[in-house]
Amino acid sequence: MIWVSWRLQRTEVLIAAAIFALLAALLVPTGIEIASAYHQDGLSACLSQNASDGCNQAIDAFTSRFDRLRSLIAWLTIIPGLIGVLLAAPFVLELENGTYRLAWTQSITRRRWIASKLGLSIVVALLAALALAVLETWWHAPFVRLEGRMDNSVYDSEGTVVFGYTLFALGLALAVGAVWRRTVPALVVAFAGYFAARVFVDTWLRQHLVTPLSATWPVLVSAHAGVRKIGGKPASLNHALVISQGPSDKLGHPVSVLGGVCSKAQVISGNCLAQGDGGYMHAVYEPASRFWLLQGIETAMFGGIALVLIGFAAWWTHERTA
Q1: Is the dihedral of CA 103, 105, 107, 108 positive or negative?
Q2: What is the pLDDT of residues 51-69, one digit of tens each?
Q3: Listing from the earlier edge strand, what are the strands of the sheet with 241-248?
Q4: Domain boundaries, the chain
Q5: At what angle do helices 291-320 and 110-147 cross, to 10 degrees?
Q6: Is pLDDT above 50 for 135?
Q7: Partner of 299 at 20 to 30 A CA spacing, among 122, 163, 185, 196?
Q8: CA nearest to 245, candidates 282, 279, 217
């Protein structure tokens, strides 16, 4: 039965392999170029918090050089969703075409047929997620050393969340397909649901999974070449996920300047601080040290929902499919 399931699913597996091959063709050469530039520029010597102005300029030049490429790679966070719904296609297609009846009228029981089909899909999905996570973790390594990995584009492609995302897309497609029994519409709806869930988590839920920390610190404004710069940021904010940040008083209350809170440009230039009565900055953030905690919570959330959806698809197929 496993061999039959593999033969029925091999087209989708080969398509997933082709997607990974295309990703490797993009990420491997560019990753080698980025790693080479990182070492040639000597950026490893600029990792201390109190980096010199020369280091800051070198880091800015390095990140600017690959900014467009990083924006493109950020879209690869949809790949787990594509892989998940793709691997659900053979199961839904058999339900749509009714070919499952041939197996059920032979010596294969419903339970065995469902277990072999779904089990193979889960194993292939996990292997694909592992390959994707390893490849993207290697590619992002130089940027992670400089900027951390709390930014959504890096966070979503590293650690354990990739497995949760892939299984969630697979489970959602299986559940919708088991009920609807129309392959293409079910997969489209499932991917749309996956995308909506990811946007919701990235833009709101992740910031509320764990109670964020806050920090208030005095702003140091120094004149250099006619431009005032703001410094004195606490070390805990280094590589952190900053949820909000702005000028404040000593107690962390937002400072109103000229009838409103300082704009981002004013904060950078220091003009609002000179005009206001604050002289402090206040930030709400998730520190970099919580990366694995947040990863674990998010993986458990998506993985748990995925298991419920896969279980529902198995139950519905076993009990409601004639």
Answers
A1: positive
A2: 677 888 999 999 999 999 9
A3: 213-218, 280-286, 241-248
A4: 2-209+290-320, 213-288
A5: 160
A6: yes
A7: 185
A8: 282
Is 140:154 a contact under the CB 8 Å cutoff?
Answer: yes
Q: Which residues of 214-230 are buried (b: 16+ CB within 10 A; e: fewer)?
A: ebbbebebeeeeeeeeb
**DSSP letter for each residue of 120-172:** HHHHHHHHHHHHHHHHHHHHHHHHHHHH-S-SHHHHTTSTTHHHHHHHHHHHH
pTM value?
0.87
Count of CA atoms in the C-beta half-sphere (13 A) of 138: 15
Cα dist. 265→2, 259, 270 in Å?
61, 16, 8
State the Cα–Cα distance between residues 213 and 247, nearest whole angstrom.
17
The predicted pLDDT at position 66 comes to: 95
The Cα 17–Cα 15 span in angstroms is 5
Structure tokens, 32: 């080698």
Cα 291 from chain centre: 12
Contact predicate 298/210, CB 8 Å: no
**Sign of the dihedral through C-alpha 105, 109, 114, 117:** negative
Residue 171's Cβ-count burial label (10 Å; 0-12, 13-18, 19+) is buried
Residue 94 sits at φ, ψ, to 5 deg, of -65, -40
Largest CA distance in the chain: 84
Cα 181 to Cα 201: distance, rounded to the nearest angstrom: 29
